[in-house]
Each structure stands twice: as structure tokens, then as C-alpha cells.
Design brief:
Strand order of the largest sheet: 13-23-24-25-21-26-27
CATH topology of the largest domain: Rossmann fold
Helix content: 40-55%
Number of domains: 6
Largest sheet: 7 strands, mixed
Number of helices: 31
Shape: elongated
CATH class of the largest domain: Alpha Beta
Distance between the termini: 80 Å
């Protein structure tokens, strides 16, 4: 790189370092400030709101400049990272006082969203995963690492599985092959913060070597990933990236766990979104996680989120959790005894991970010791139960008594956050430290005592002890008393009326007191570093403690929810019947106005007599809530939680699919109907006999006839055109589908009841057998505040259309459509009419259409069909 002669040596150094990190904002330490230059300064001033100035050397060279004090790094760093910038922190690597020429500098850390460790960049109840994705020819691999906790997961499978894990575990940053950018965006979208790496990093040999070197093992068999080449490559890329971003100290990443697809109930990203498990489409909307999360520790909150998106499928493991929850529920004193110490333990998992990163402060080290004290209490309480699961967890807890006592003994009771402030180490730990502290705090008293002693010994009553910067401490004697001075005193200065002396004792004391503060800080730092070195050996057992506390926290949370919200234990079985008595939606129930009861409903689904429920009812009557609560109760049971129902028999379910609601993916160039069909196709192509399928208003994104035909065909397909018979709830406003109950044995009609009072409708929200024949769309329009004139006209048109054509759009066509094994005959019967309708619709400008014009156009289309 050619040097600009106009550049100062400092700017030459800056530019050389910046060239190695071109895509990062470089925070360049100069004295007591972090400075940014050029484009970095423009970014920093905009994001941080700091002043932008010009650096001008009096020559042709000038550059933008923006900076902030070094002690404000934490304040500003997280703002840059949260704004989506990679930040390279360049520090001074030597003491400026000792430096010859320009101070040596280098990047000590590269901070990106996926490798953040600062508390201000992390959410305490969420993992901050760095994701690695390897897109292979046949299989894809994924690795997810939280550097702040040391948790490391790996999995492999098809692209849909990788997409599901990305959507479920939501990494803060994803790294992948640079040559697969287009493919990555096509498969996984643009919703992740990403960074691309060179292709050579994604080689199995290199990745395997990287992992073996890190874990210091001869093979990866012990982690269960030895044969998972794609997962190994993804994990290797993650470790490479950590090294690239200046994170060499990773001793807390001591294992890698395999996520096996077959171990968990499957939910695709549509289902996770539609059921509002983690986030809601509404701002500040409620989610299942928000309702269920009554954990007492950050570790528990993070684990609960994983349990929610990765529910168990093994009935024995589910029953084990349910047994533990029931035991805690029946023993409220035990529940309280365990939750209190968990609450007081703090975030032990993240604190212990700061040790190898060298980012832990004295107060946090003391909190680890207090956390271990709480571990001891938890172990005592949990091991005293007669529940196998709780006892098993208690056995794995290790209070690490030795290091816990060492920390409490070594550190002050309330140490400062920074070692540089002193007062970290307790008295009695180091004799020299205690002596120096004594000197620093009692120096004046010592000098007064020395003055009195020497005055008494010499008989010089006017003897004084003084201090100056040239000689340090001295004894001053007036000329009249000069003859009384002992021979051992050493004369240092003569004044007009007095002489100044030093003694070996005074000189020795001076050496001790001068720089005592500096020595105190040095000794304290050494003792603190020694303590951290000893703590290194305990990282793994403390991490295990954190994981066990998290599990206990989640189980206690489930027990608390059952107690507070009247949840009941579900019966898990391997049959095919789903039976829910008086089931409630856990989220809606918690957000009802005070005093308003939730209208509970029963649901029965099985593979024979009631495989598919066609659910009809007015808009806004609660059809979607019934669908969602069925899925959420099934999901909660698989988590090992009690459920909001009076009774629930839940079959082991391998997949939950939902097609609930419709929204345009306009940015992706897809209409409502296209999104709807994509999601439905994903369901149809992945179902098994153990799946639970929830379909809400399928076909409403297209014309009535297309919609009815597709909905009808889907029901037939799920009933007898597939070898699997998934349990299905199908909510629809197409009342014509009620005909299916008479044609297909496994289909049953239900409707959500309502009561008409005058010209008003009251939704009763109660499920009842039989189909509904009205949608009450005009009533809903009235409730939404449509003008009365528009509503009156709508009623007139509706009455006229019903009188002319009857309720059904085309009964004859429907009869033909339901002929055996002829699913789509409706298209053949009216192909010309449909062509005309399509042309009519193509010529419509929907954005300019008024409601009345829309109704008139609908009448015109109905007349085409009638003709």
C-alpha cells in the first residue's frame, strides 16, 4: 500500500490497520479517546450523535474525524453494533510513556451482532446465537453458538429443516459460503444479519481439524456428530469466524450438542409464526412465550424458549417432565424452596463464560460464588424429594465448595466493578497488601508517633517531620538544638535557622509510603488474576450447574403456571385420538377483560370416525381461536407442561401444521393466494398419520369458485387420497363444504354458535355439532363502523341476490364436483364462464373500487354464472 507523503505517521498506522478490516468501523485509540476517521467518522457521527470535524494537517490531506472518551466505549459500542455495523476495536498495545516513536497499536476485538459479549448488546432472556450454514450438494449443515454462554449446537438435513432451525432459534448473525449468496437468499430470505466467508473455509477436512484442535479430542464421536459432515463444516466455519474476529480465548466452549430432527415435534416457520409462539404480528402483541414465561433466572428463560420451539416427541421424556411438574405442584413448599435460590443465583451461565474472555469484574466473580451457594441449597431441597427427575437433576449439581469458599474468602464483601479502583481483595489474604494499606491509611498517625518518639529520645522538643518533592520525608531541627542530633542521622539540607536530616527508619518508611497506592493496585490485580486462573478449572462444572438450574427453573415455571392458571396434567399416549375437554386458548384467556370468563370448548379428533372437522361460523366468532388453542394445547403437552383444559388426552404428534390467516408477501412479489398455496403445499407434502393439521379459510385469496374447489379438494385429499390420515381442523366460510359430512365418513361438521337479537348478532363462541349457513359479514362490517347507508344498501343487495339465486353459488356445479374421484369437474362445467370472469377481474382496478361498486361487480359475476 503506497504511503501518502502528506499523511502523518499516526494516519499511516491507522490506514494500514483499516486496510485489514475494510468492512468494519475502526475505533482507533489515541490517548484517552477512541477516534474514527473518514467514512467511519461519518457513520459514527450519524449513529452515535457525536460531532463530526475535519482533521487538517496543513497539507493537501484532510479527513473527517469523530471521537469519544475511551471510558465511554460500552455506551457507544452497542449502538454501532445494533445499527448493523461490524466494529473493530484498535487499542494501544504498549505504554505510551515507554514507546519509542509511534505507539504500537492493534485490533484487540472485532464485535459483530453474533459475537457480542457486552451486557448492553445481549438480551438476558434470549440466546445470542452466531449461526453457521453450509449449503451442500445433497445436505445442508447448521451450527449455532452462543459465545456468551458457551452453548454450541449442530444439525444437518434438507433446506427446509435448516430454515426451521434458523426461524426457531433466530441467530443474531449467520455466516455462510460467499459463492452461495443467491441460493441462501432464495432459500432462507433476507431476514438475517449475514456475513459471507471464503469457500475454502467450508471444507470438511479443515472444519474437522478446527474442531478437534479446539476440543482437544481425537474424534468427534463423543459429541455424536462424527458422521455429520455438513454439520461439522458449519461448526468449523463458526469457530473459524471467532478466530477471525479476535476471539482466541474460548475455553468455555467445551462441547457441541447434536440437534436430532426425530427427537422433536416438527413445526415449520409458518406454524411458529401463525401460532404466535415467539412474536406477534401486532406491536406489543401477546405471545405464548410471554404468557408461559414465569421463570426466575435468565438461564431458565433462555431454555424455556428452546423447549417451546423444540418440543419433545419421546413419551418417556415428556412423562418425566410431567411427573416432576406434578410433584412440585403437590408440594408448594418445595416449589418455593427451589424457586427462591434459583432467583437469587443470577445469570451464572453468562458470568462464568466471561472468565476465559477476560471480561469478568470482581463483583461478577463474587456473584458466581453466591450463585454456587444457591446451587448448594437447590441440591439439598431437590435431592430430598421422592421424584426421580428432580433427584436426577440434583445429583448433577456441584456447589464447587472449594472455589466458592475461596472467592468469598478472597474478595471484599462489596467489591468495586473495576480492579483499577482498588478495594477488591479482603484483609488477611496478603501480608504485604495489608501493610501497604495500613501505611496508606495510617501514614499520618505513624509520622506523628515517629516524631514524638524521636523528640523524646533526643530531647529536642521542637523536632518536626516534613516532606518535599526533592528529599521526600525529613526531620527538621533548629540550629539551637543541632548539638543534640544523633550521629546516625544523615544531614540532607541546611537552612538559615535549621538543619534537615533523614534516618534509615524514615527512609525505609518513605520507600514504603511512596507509591504505596500503585503497589496496592498491582498486588490486588495479581491476586485477582490468580483467582481467575483457579476459576478456569471450574468453568465446566459451573456450566453444568447453570444448565441444571435452567431445567429446574422451567419445571418450577410449569408448576407455577398450573397453580395460577388452573392448568391440568395431559395424558400422553401413543394412539391416535386427540381429546380435549373444556380447552382454552392460553394467550387469549390471560388477556380477557377482568371478570369476563373464557368460553371453553371440547375437541375430539381421531383417524377414523372424526378425522376432519369442518368448522363454520360467523366471522369474528372465534373459529381461529379454537384452531390455535388445539395446536397450543398439543404443543404445551409435548413440552412437558400442564395445559389449559379440564382434561386432555394427547397422542404423540410428530408435526403440527397451520395455515392460519393470510398476508401478502408483496416485497417477495407474492400475492395472498400464492403465499396461502405455498404454505398449504408444504403441509400436503409433509404430513404423516401422526400430524395435526389446522387450516383456516383456505382459498379465500382467490375467487369464490376457485376457493371452494381448492378447499373441497384439500379435504378429499386429506381424507382418502393420501395413505396418511392426519387429524385436521378446517375452519372455513364456504358453507358449501358442509356437504362433505354426508359424503366422507371421517368428516364432521361443527359450527361456532351465535344468537341474533333484533338486527344484532351476539357471538356465543361455543362449539356445536352441525354446519353454519351464514357468515354475518354485514354484521361484522357494522361492528367495524361502516356507514349506515352502505350497510343498508349491502342488506338490500344481499336479499336480492339470495332471492334470485339461493344461498349456494352454484349447487348443480357442486353436485358434479363431488362425484366420486372427480375433484375438479367444476372447472370443466364452466370453463367459458370462468374465462369471462377472469377477464372481468383482470380489468378491475381494485385500489379504486368503492364497496358499493364491488358489490355490484359481484352481482354481475353471479349473473354470468347463472347464465
Amino acid at each position: 500500500m503506497a504511503k501518502n507523503p502528506a499523511e502523518t505517521p499516526l494516519m499511516q498506522q491507522h490506514n494500514a490497520i483499516k486496510a485489514r478490516y475494510p468492512d468494519a468501523v475502526l475505533l482507533f485509540r489515541v490517548g484517552d479517546f477512541y477516534e474514527t476517521f473518514g467514512q467511519d467518522a461519518i457513520i459514527a457521527s450519524q449513529v452515535l450523535g457525536i460531532t463530526l470535524t475535519k482533521r487538517n494537517n496543513g497539507a493537501a490531506f484532510s479527513s473527517e474525524l469523530a471521537g469519544f472518551p475511551h471510558h465511554s466505549l460500552d455506551t457507544y459500542l452497542h449502538k454501532l453494533v445494533k445499527a448493523g455495523h461490524r466494529v473493530a476495536i484498535c487499542d494501544q498495545l504498549e505504554d505510551p510513556k515507554q514507546a519509542k516513536g509511534i505507539v504500537k497499536r492493534g485490533v484487540t476485538e472485532l464485535v459483530t451482532p453474533g459475537v457480542a459479549t457486552s451486557d448492553k448488546l445481549l438480551e438476558h432472556n434470549s440466546n445470542n446465537f452466531l449461526g453457521g450454514v453450509h449449503i451442500g450438494e445433497e445436505r445442508c449443515g447448521i451450527a449455532l453458538l452462543d459465545i456468551s454462554t458457551g452453548e454450541f449446537f449442530a444439525a444437518e438435513g434438507n433446506q427446509e429443516y435448516i430454515d426451521k432451525l434458523l426461524q426457531s432459534l433466530r441467530p443474531a448473525e449467520v455466516v455462510y459460503q460467499r459463492n452461495k449468496q443467491k441460493l441462501f437468499r432464495e432459500q432462507f430470505g433476507a431476514r438475517f444479519y449475514t456475513y459471507t466467508l471464503d469457500e475454502w473455509i467450508f471444507q470438511e477436512t479443515y472444519a474437522r481439524e478446527t474442531l478437534l484442535k479446539h476440543f482437544q479430542t481425537h474424534s468427534l464421536k463423543g459429541f455424536g456428530i462424527d458422521q455429520m459432515a455438513a454439520a461439522i463444516i458449519a461448526a468449523g466455519a463458526v469457530m473459524h469466524y471467532l478466530r477471525d474476529t479476535e476471539h482466541p480465548n474460548l475455553q468455555h466452549i467445551s462441547a457441541i450438542q447434536r440437534i436430532e430432527r426425530e427427537d422433536f415435534l416438527w413445526m415449520d416457520r409458518f406454524t411458529i409464526r401463525n401460532l404466535e409462539l415467539l412474536s406477534s404480528g401486532m406491536e406489543n402483541g401477546n405471545t405464548l412465550l410471554k404468557v408461559l414465561d414465569h421463570t426466575q433466572s435468565p438461564m431458565g428463560a433462555r431454555l424455556l424458549k428452546r423447549w417451546l420451539v423444540l418440543p419433545l416427541k419421546d413419551p418417556n421424556a415428556i412423562e418425566e417432565r410431567l411427573d416432576a411438574v406434578e410433584h412440585l405442584l403437590l408440594n408448594p413448599d418445595l416449589l418455593k424452596s427451589i424457586t427462591q435460590p434459583i432467583h437469587q443465583s443470577g445469570d451464572v451461565e453468562r458470568l462464568v463464560s466471561k472468565i476465559p474472555l477476560k471480561k469478568i469484574n470482581p463483583r461478577e466473580v463474587l456473584q458466581i460464588a453466591r450463585g454456587l451457594q444457591q446451587v448448594k441449597l437447590c441440591k439439598e431441597f431437590a435431592s430430598g424429594t421422592n421424584n426421580g427427575c428432580l433427584q436426577k437433576l440434583a445429583e448433577k449439581l456441584d456447589p464447587c465448595t472449594g472455589i466458592m469458599e475461596r472467592i468469598v474468602h478472597t474478595l471484599q464483601e462489596n467489591p468495586p466493578v473495576q480492579t483499577a479502583k482498588g478495594g477488591v481483595i479482603a484483609p488477611g489474604i496478603n501480608a504485604e497488601l495489608d501493610e501497604l494499606r495500613n501505611i496508606a491509611t495510617t501514614g499520618k498517625d505513624y509520622l506523628v508517633q515517629m516524631q514524638l518518639k524521636e523528640s523524646e529520645l533526643t530531647g529536642i522538643p521542637s523536632l518536626k517531620i516534613g516532606f518535599n518533592n526533592v528529599f521526600g520525608y525529613y526531620l527538621e531541627v533548629t540550629n539551637t538544638n543541632k548539638h543534640k542530633v544523633p550521629e546516625t542521622w544523615i544531614r540532607k539540607q541546611t537552612l538559615a535557622n535549621a538543619e534537615r536530616y533523614i534516618t534509615p527508619e524514615l527512609k525505609s518508611y518513605e520507600e514504603k509510603i511512596t507509591g504505596a497506592e500503585e503497589k496496592i493496585l498491582s498486588i490486588e490485580q495479581q491476586l485477582f488474576d490468580q483467582l481467575l486462573f483457579e476459576l478456569q478449572e471450574y468453568i465446566a462444572p459451573i456450566q453444568v450447574n447453570a444448565q441444571i438450574l435452567a431445567q429446574l427453573d422451567c419445571l418450577c415455571c410449569f408448576a407455577h403456571n398450573a397453580l395460577q392458571f388452573n392448568y391440568k396434567r395431559p395424558q400422553i399416549h401413543t394412539g391416535d385420538e386427540l381429546f380435549i375437554k373444556e380447552g382454552r386458548h392460553p394467550v387469549i384467556e390471560r388477556n380477557l377483560p377482568p371478570g369476563e370468563p373464557y368460553i371453553a370448548n371440547d375437541i375430539v379428533l381421531n383417524g377414523s370416525s372424526q378425522q376432519i372437522i369442518i368448522l363454520t361460523g360467523p366471522n369474528m366468532s372465534g373459529k381461529s381461536a379454537i384452531l390455535r388453542q388445539t395446536a397450543l394445547i398439543t404443543l404445551m403437552a409435548h413440552m412437558g407442561s400442564f395445559v389449559p383444559a379440564d382434561e386432555a388426552r394427547i397422542p404423540i404428534t410428530d408435526k403440527i401444521f397451520t395455515r392460519v390467516g393470510a398476508s401478502d408477501n408483496l416485497s417477495g412479489g407474492e400475492s395472498t393466494f400464492m403465499v396461502e398455496m405455498n404454505e398449504t403445499a408444504s403441509i400436503i407434502n409433509n404430513i404423516t398419520s401422526k400430524s395435526l393439521v389446522l387450516l383456516d379459510e383456505i382459498g379465500r385469496g382467490t375467487s369464490t369458485y376457485d376457493g371452494i374447489s381448492i378447499a373441497w379438494s384439500i379435504v378429499e385429499y386429506l381424507h382418502h387420497f393420501t395413505a396418511f390420515k392426519p387429524k385436521t381442523l378446517f375452519a372455513t366460510h364456504y358453507h358449501e363444504l358442509n356437504e362433505l359430512e354426508h359424503k366422507l365418513d371421517g368428516v364432521k361438521n361443527y359450527h361456532v354458535t351465535n344468537k341474533e337479537s333484533g338486527n344484532k348478532i351476539i357471538f356465543l363462541r361455543k362449539l356445536a355439532p352441525g354446519g353454519s349457513t351464514h357468515s354475518f359479514g354485514i354484521h361484522v362490517a357494522k361492528m367495524a363502523g361502516m356507514p349506515p347507508a352502505l350497510l343498508n344498501r349491502s342488506n338490500e343487495i344481499l336479499a336480492e341476490l339470495e332471492m334470485k339465486h339461493g344461498d349456494a353459488p352454484n349447487t348443480e356445479a357442486l353436485q358434479k364436483a363431488t362425484a366420486p374421484k372427480v375433484q375438479l369437474s367444476i372447472f370443466d362445467a364452466h370453463s367459458e364462464t370462468f374465462d369471462q370472469i377472469r377477464k372481468t377481474l383482470d380489468n378491475l382496478d381494485i385500489n379504486r373500487l368503492t364497496p358499493v361498486e364491488a358489490l355490484l361487480k359481484l352481482q354481475e359475476i353471479k349473473q354470468m354464472v347463472k347464465a
